[in-house]
């Protein structure tokens, strides 16, 4: 189940990177990039970074949640 969730997160992040690449090309150079070309470029050049990011984000969310829980428990003395 965790593997499926991670795979879905990777696919979502690849899509976000591809769309942002096309938007950046449009706004920076007034150039139109085909969605398929943006997706292929993302898969070729940035898939490793997307996979690492998809692994680290849930870890950071858990750490942040633990810190928020600890901070809520410690503020009762104020």
TrEMBL record:
The UniProt family comment states:
Belongs to the CTL (choline transporter-like) family.
| Cited function | Choline transporter.
UniProt superkingdom: Eukaryota
The entry's localization annotation reads: Cell membrane; Membrane
Q: What is this protein called?
A: Choline transporter-like protein
The species this protein belongs to is Brassica carinata (Ethiopian mustard)
Answer yes or no on keyword DNA-binding.
Answer: no
Q: Name one GO molecular function term.
A: transmembrane transporter activity
Membrane topology annotation:
Multi-pass membrane protein
Main location per UniProt? membrane
Keyword terms of this UniProt record: Membrane, Transmembrane, Transmembrane helix
Q: Which residues form the signal peptide?
A: none
Specify whether Transmembrane is a keyword of the entry.
yes
**Gene Ontology cellular component terms for the protein in this record:** plasma membrane
């Amino acid at each position: 189940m965790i593997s499926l969730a991670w795979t879905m997160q990777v696919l979502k992040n690849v899509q976000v990177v591809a769309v942002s690449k096309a938007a950046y090309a449009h706004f920076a150079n007034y150039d139109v990039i085909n969605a398929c070309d943006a997706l292929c470029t993302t898969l070729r050049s940035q898939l490793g970074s997307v996979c690492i990011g998809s692994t680290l984000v849930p870890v950071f969310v858990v750490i942040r949640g633990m810190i928020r829980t600890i901070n809520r428990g410690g503020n009762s003395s104020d």
